Amino acid sequence: MSNAPRLGRAPLWRDRSFGTYWIAQSLSAAGDAFAYLAVPLLVLQATGSVAQMGLLTAVAGAASVAAGVFGGVLVDRYDRRTLMIVADLVRLVLYGLVPLVWLAGPRVWLLFVVLPICEAAGMLFQVAAVTAVRNLVDADRITEANGRLQATFAATAVLGPLLAGVVSARFGPATAIAVNAASFALSAAGLRLVRLRAARPADAPEVPRGSPLVEFLAGARFLWRQPVLRALTVLLSVFVFLVYGFTDVLIYHVTHDLGGSEGTVGTVLGLAALGTVAGALLVAPLRRRRGFGTTWIGAHAVCGFAVAGVGAATTVPAVTALTAVYLCCLSIGGICSMSLRQEITPDHLLGRVTSAFWSTHYALGPAGAAILTWTAGRYGVPAVALVAGAGCLLVAVGGLFTPIRRAGAEPAADPRGLGPTPAVGTTGG
Questions:
Q1: What's the domain range around 102?
Q2: What is the Cα 55 distance to its own chain's centre?
Q3: Is 427 among the domain residues?
Q4: What b/e sequence results for 219-228 when a residue is b if at least 16 CB atoms lie within 10 Å of its CB, and e otherwise?
Q5: What is the mean pLDDT of the chain?
Q6: What is the pLDDT of residues 191-234, one digit of tens each?
Q7: How many domains, the chain?
């Protein structure tokens, strides 16, 4: 499958359906950027404990993983746009409860109820959103589309934490969460205007259905039988264990060790998000020139050095710069991995393969977040960041001994979902 763009086509930004989808996703991402900062600050403000922040991240992450198990089955069975709208409305209602209840005083227990449900709805939304890209653009433009989407998400992530820091400092983190809730209403309204292409041709045979577990296992089977996807799943499971609680540790480092305020945290996360913008814009040309394997391995190696550097940094500007490097490389590696799955997976399996991948590689994340934040509070951020960074570097080195290293243009997917079949003019992964 060639990644070279076809000549004579209009640029993606002129595609009306993709543009509408792009705007709706950006609105949702803008609100998420508020919650990204506001929820940890709300817990830290009420309890003063980084371990409580990590515990909430762990519980919410576990709910997300559980939802991912069957999210792909729903996405492959039902209309993807409708599922995204429902997920937006659920988060609108639940996040909207937080600032209302907080008027009577801090209720941390409410976050342990609301956040897991919202994370589960968010996982369903993300599985549907990833698969919807396949129904919006041609196969050879998937990496470009993902790059543009992620670049815009990152751009909102620049302003989001900055504004969330200002709002949190002036009106409190609960108000910032109210802004997040409102963003889901705008996202749902925008998605109603999107029209997706048919998932399969009208004359294609109906795909047989089984029980939800059997259908999920079909996606997991495809994921495990594809050598590159299998290696990615295993290595990324370790990587997520190491960095799932990184944001909590970063916020704790800036506020506790460096004496920063809530506004300082917002500035750090906002400016560092420029790294995500850079990564999203760089990923397509990097992959074309260097290939999948080199790009993915190199990105995760640099992530390791950046994570270790954040812990060693003693000034806010240094933390900001290193976090930007980390987010840049995280963006490059993530978009590469996501685009590869979209390119080589049959459409009727795409939701299940996506959810099987995310459920598996996020499974260790909640435990990792709890351990990372607990050890940071007990032994200090520098030591924990050094160990986590070294682990990330080992993940990249591990990629050198798997099919990831040789991955270039991947085999095309067998339309029956039985596995990859050689495509004309491509080299095997």
A1: 13-197+210-421
A2: 20
A3: no
A4: bbbbbeebbb
A5: 78
A6: 887 777 665 544 444 555 556 667 777 777 888 888 888 999 89
A7: 1
